[in-house]
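Regression check, iron/sulfur cluster case 429:
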Amino acid sequence: MNNYISMVPLSSGGDGSLTALLTSISPKVSDILNKALNDEDISEQEGLVLFDTQGLELDALIATADELRMKTVGNCGTFVITRNINFTNVCNMGCKFCGFAKRKSEAGAELLSMDEIANRAQEAWDRGATEVCIQGGLHPDLKGDHYRNILKAIKTQVPEMHIHAFSPFEIWYGARKSRMSTADFIQDLIDHGLGSMPGTAAEILDVEIRKQLTKDKLSTEQWVDIITTAHKLGLPTTATIMYGHVDSPKHWVEHIGKIRSIQQQTGGFTEFVPLGFVHYESPLYLSNPNVRPGPTPDENIKMHAISRVMLNGWIDNIQASWVKLGPDYATAMLRAGANDIGGTLMNESITRASGGKNGQEIMPADMVMMIEKAGLSAVRRNTLYKSVETFERSSPLEIVKNTCPQTISVVEIAVTEDAALPRVSGGLL
Ligand code: SF4
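Current build output:
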């Protein structure tokens, strides 16, 4: 692990190391990296070349991503105090990678009451959380208004809490259960306090891969429609990729390219979050010898670095998920293109249900320590990347080139009157 961290250059620019690296590698790779450093978009094909880098070329990729992170958000790393509330683990969708879902009659199946959800939100608020992240399985007994009722219960008890909730798969399900168009369903949720949406359930936005993972129940087209509809209604979302199973770098660059092109149209993504596949208890892995046991360390570092390089100028925030990576790897990613380590979390159950080895909660002081260990200044943010609290570094900053901006990039979506909203047809499941 220490070797892994030490392979991340702790000083990428200003002292000539990046320049030196770029002149000592193949022109094919240095041309691509120089293009990104000059704020030009690199193509998916060029991204694929970067996934093939090794040795000095990989060092140059990491140093370029680190330089772009510094130019975009300064030498600061961010985190948010949040609580995950997985309100039900009952789901019949049968996604093959999922180790979280249970049948209704299975031991351990649960569906939280509205009171329990509101009480958990209250507890989180009392402990300093600015956000609750609410996601659940697609429980067959849920009525369409269940999603609205969750928002109402939380907002009644904790009116100022930001609610980051409901994956595109849940939106798709809730809209059908309510016999509403996606746009009307999302607007109703916004009217009842939905503040932003997680861009989960993206997995890999490729038809063939999704067929293997989810039987293509929520298609790429539907995921994109729901996300762009949310953005056009003024609702920000995150964007994710789940990698390291039956996929390959070709699918990764195409996925990042799709995310970039949505952002070019809507500007509604707050962050991009690479999520490595957690295989331990995943039925996909346990039943198929051809499924990989998650990404390799090299792939993790390349994914974060290439995300920064390909999304440069479009999505400012690249998150390294400590829940998936573990604290040491997440720290390393902060010097390889990432600028955020996500949420402190309380009660994260999805990754642990798949056998993830990392704990369900990290204290804010631990987040600050991880960020400082990477040589950056720690900033607590809210969901939309507005600075909430800055921390004095406990040791001298060795590699500062510029300081953290007061406000990191705050996401604002311009909603146009004539935005053409894509509709996904309604109807019950
Ligand atoms: S990933 Fe979500 S939709 Fe798929 S089976 Fe698991 S809980 Fe259900």
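Comparison notes: Residues 91, 93-95, 98, 100-101, 137-138, 169 surround iron/sulfur cluster (CB under 6 Å). The longest helix spans residues 55-73. No diff flagged against the previous build.
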